[in-house]
Amino acid sequence: MSLEKAKACLKEFNLESRIMEFDTSSATVKEAAEAIHCQEKDIAKSLSFLVGDKAILIVTAGDQKIDNAKFKAEYGVKAKMVPFEDVEHMIGHEVGGVCPFGVNEGIDIYLDVSLKRLEYVYPACGSHNSAVKLTIDELERTSHFLKWVDVCKSIE
Question: Which of 97, 100, 94 shows the shortest CA–CA distance to 56?
């Protein structure tokens, strides 16, 4: 059902034809990069956090991780991920398929500045074996993001 919600969202922008579905898992950054044949940095991973009792999504480049000091400076609280068992209920997509398309109402979506250096990104599309190729402008339009944030640092 999550894939259908993401497809419906992308259809509003005439981008549903770009959705790719794979025979293998694309649930992790590494698996997605292998399935798509791209670099890990090109995967737009959507991370779900709790700010108080409210769930938010932060979309970042695949070669980045949350910088706890930057997160606290931006949101005023320590970074705390939504528990695995609560992600689908709170966000609207299962772990491995979380994306900024077709999420539950009331979820604020933020894009990390690490994405701005990329021409194309590949976010998941609601399932553990899907993705969609988008420009950064298209990601901005389709994600209904609230604002750009700087809350990550390189994994390396």
Answer: 100
Those residues with Cβ within 8 angstroms of residue 135's Cβ, 6 or more apart along the chain or in another chain: 119, 120, 121
C-alpha distance from residue 130 to each of 50, 97, 103 (Å) = 25, 7, 16
Q: State the pTM of this model.
A: 0.96
What are the pLDDT digits (tens) for 77-132? 999 999 999 999 999 999 999 999 999 999 999 999 999 999 999 999 999 999 99
Residue 102's region, left for phi above 0, alpha for psi from -120 to 50, else beta, is left
Query: CA Rg, the chain, in Å?
Result: 14
Residue 7 has a CB neighbour count (10 Å cut-off) of 18
Are residues 32 and 131 in contact, defined by beta-carbon separation less than 8 angstroms?
A: yes
